[in-house]
Amino acid sequence: MRYLFFDIECAGVSKTAAKICAFGYCLVDEQFHILEKEDILINPQGSFRLTDRRGEHGLVLPYEYSTFKRCPKFTEVAPKIYALLQAEDTLVVGHATMNDVKYLNLETARFGLPHLQFSFADTQFVYMNRIGEFSRQFALKTIGEQLGVEFVPHRAVDDAYATMKIAEAMCKENGCTFMQLLKKYEITVGYTKDGEVTQNTSVSQERYLAEHAKQKEEKEKKRGKFRQYVEKCKRRRSKEGKLKGKSLCLSHALEWQDSAYAVADKAFASAAWWTSKAEECDVYVATDNETGPRIKSAQDKGARIYTVEEFLAL
Questions:
Q1: Strands 190-193 and 118-122, how do they pair?
Q2: Domain end point (choices 141, 168, 199)
């Protein structure tokens, strides 16, 4: 078994094109001995409009952009890329691999090329299974720092090499091969076929998703019960009190907690109006260290912001 660790950089991504400008790869054997390593630079046939994974501008690639105009087009390097990705007895591996596979599918469709067909693993997903954390993603740099791997971010071949070293570090930690590591964490590899992509899965992730869905359902039931309580209490709101003429809004994250009832009781006893729209409130009761658009709307309105404890202390 051989492993093709790869990474892609794009000049810009849209719904119909990825404009790949670099395909970096590191081909290794079972013992992580490097067989091939190369940074294939590509003329993206378009301007550079770089954003990070959140869609924010400011990403800078460690290349001279003028170089790409002198490089071969994607159709010219496609035969080599196809041969690397679809080679027999080779597992393709990347970091957040779904993204790069989607970019490849966009580019092959953009130039009318045949669909790629190969299986792939994802070192980010392996790492998430390693630490039992599925609620967030982890940058290649973050994992590299955790496992002692240094590299130049966003140079495709260096990202591919770092991905390989991360896989190697996790294998050494467990005293096993990469395939044995996937088996240890009960990971099923992903694959792309006919332009469609199926992601990696694992038993641990499925358990997490099932528990997360159960907790979400329970929270929604508690929220529904609380909102019914608010509607009922509105009818016996005091006519006089410290909050007369003021509208109060509660953080969504508090609506399923028991403390929400105490807030509602005190608010209505103080003659407050109740609103679910943060942009219309005069008083906003938040969770500790809350951030996000809802509390920002309340702040923009000029609302007074309190925690539950602070509000009840009034």
A1: antiparallel
A2: 199
